[in-house]
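Budget justification note: compute hours in this period were largely spent on complex prediction jobs such as the one shown. Inputs:
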Amino acid sequence: MRYYLELALRSLRRNAVLTTLMVSAIGVGVGAAMTTLTVFRAMSGDPIPEKSTQLFAPQIRSRGPNNPDRESEDGLPTTVNYVDAMAWMQSPSAKRKTVTYATWLSVRPADPKQQPFKKIVRVAYKDFFAMFDVPFQYGGAWTQADDENRAAVVVLTRAINDVLFGGSNSVGKTARLDNETYTVVGVIDNWLPIPRFYDLQTTPFGESDQLLIPFTRAIDRQMTVSGSTSCTGETGATFADLLKSNCIWLQFWVELPTPQDFEKYRLYLSNYAAEQQHNGRYPWPPRTELRNVREWLAYRHVVPNEVNVLILLSFGFLVVCLLNAAGLLLAKLMSRAGEIGVRRALGASRAAVFCQCLIETGVVGLSGGLLGLLLTILGLAAARALVGADFVALMHLDVADLGIAIGLSVTATLIAGLYPTWRAAQVQPAWQLKSP
Amino acid sequence: MSKQVPMSKLEIGPILSSLGRNKFGSMLIAAQIAITVGFLANALSIVEFRLSWSSRPTGIDEANIFSIRSDSVDHHTDTAARVSADLALLRGLPGVIDAFADYSYPMAGGGWGSSVHLQPDQATQTTTTAIYFADEHGLRTLGTRLIAGRNFTADEIRDRAESDSPITSVLIVTKALGLKLFPAGDALGKDIYVDSDEHPERIVGIVERLQAFDTRSSGPWSTIAEHSVLLPYRPVAERSDYLVRVQPGRLDSVMPAAQQALFALDSNRILRTRSMAQVRESAYRGDHGLVVLLLCVSVALLLVTGFGIVGLTSHWVAQRRRQIGIRRALGATRGDIMRYFQTENLLIAAVGALIGIGFAVALNLWVVREFEMPRMEIDRAVAGGILMLILGQLAVLWPALRAASIPPALATR
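Corresponding output:
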């Protein structure tokens, strides 16, 4: 085995140009494929793997067949109105539930030397934290009483806690948001679900929400949504009108841990829809959907078509690179037909020759994989520079990627080298010795 | 000359029989060329589309316009007064041509889209449009050309707050929207329903071009990219956005000056300025990123395929050294040998290119259906095929030259 390895290295060195061509072809192909694959995996990844099949986004046909939601393929609204959201919040059918939206608030640091700034603020019920497995560095979620009392409480992320309180335990301290005083109840540890499945309206791959306050408080203070509000027909202009209207603008999530819970909730939802039809609120045929996180991300086409096209292109490119490598391998192995003939004549079995060639191919694949890995790192850096800061957090290589790159490269090269290797092993000792 | 013509005719036979012996290698090259043509033609057609998409004219004087966003920190009691003061200040700055308080603008990304009706109680909408607000200074600031009718007058402008939406009876539309609603081209003076379902607005002006705020190249907005209306509103809210047009060449000096002046007027706010060039850059960043990536992969594809041809052909030359020597000894010229390898490559590449053109079309059909990409013109695939023939000839040049330099004496050894 070691001997074969030495032979392989020696033979590869002898044909340096051909070897370089092969290794770079495989390297470039693997690099391109890995780069796009990493981007794709990051974008299409499961943001909450432990619970993605237990969290559901209910949908209801809250507008007539003439006014479909143009953002979704089946025309079903992807957001809900305040009236439905409040009705669902009252229902005991789900283990946990929250309605949520994003708004902008100005944050005024206690230190007068620091400039005030605007931040996206997440607005939710207390269940949000438990449902989405939000980890806390200090403190914890606010209480149900806070939800009921529209309390001025806030949960900070680690990043904003660093800015406002120098990273110290700020629980119990106060922060000024839109010129009102909020008490800090918790600080979230590093938490960045990608994509931000629970609200795909604002940059799903961007930075995380940095402050969170109770939904009831936000409604009480008439905080407007950062995202789309879609209305049909005549609606008033005030915030109170918005709450009464059938304008859709809210995200709703429920946690249903078991299939029984799911069935129960599905029944509740369709009964609710039937009731709305019956009382004339939604006079058209009712329709509801209950999609889990994975289904939701697929339904909302969270991965842009451009990424799919790039994946396709890079894998086509990999195929071309491998065809290329196969041709070069063939050339290389066949140019050594004489040498192989001698070995065969000296008693080496076909299997031994096959094995030797395979090891040589494997070495090429391994080197190509390493080069590919290097190119992947460069490719990701380039992609980051190209597509901008929204994607910074999401593209990184881990140990599994190392394995995938090397494995992909070696396997693909071995497959590409199968025919050339087989051909080499077919070399007839007598025929080759006759030929000069 | 007369001697060469029958020679090259004769060569096809031997080439075919020798290709028969190198089936696997020739198939590999042909397959590479076919796949390369397929992907290249599609990639380049996407590049072409995205480049033309991202360079569409917006209809405004982009080079000399910037936007300022003002966000209140503490709640403001009289936002209308502040907007008036801000606008007076901006319009008075040296170098400023005009300014107005806007509600979204071309390439901004987000804004208010609304259905358009021709009748008050219409069941299905006629079309969709982007809605912009502007006062009587709007057209001058945007630099968009009025081709029919008139601008808003000062007494038509209403303040529009989040809690208060007054009704208007006039609006200005783009030529594209006007033609969509009234294909006969007589939109001026007609009543349509945009803001409200009950009160019509009359079209008092038509502008040549004003792009909608959404810049995505697919999806519902891409087909109505020039459907815009201007409503005679002045938005008043905690957050105010202003568009400012400056005299040519003064953008870089006026932008910071405007920000400083607004802050001096009222420091209870966070200000952010962006030139239209910056807005354009961020709006089309994704498109340009895709273009660069596609071009990189295309160049890499060509290089890999080219070097693959060099490698395999070199191998064939090395394999046939003796035969080449014999042919040379029998009187074949260097040119004959070169031509042999060039014709061989041309045959392989032609087969590959033909298959590739078919593959390119099939791939395009699939990509159009699955990923909403633009349809490719067939001549792009043909161009890709021809490009590969040229690449093949270039790649084969070096090995062919080496073959031609094999001395006839080799045959005697």
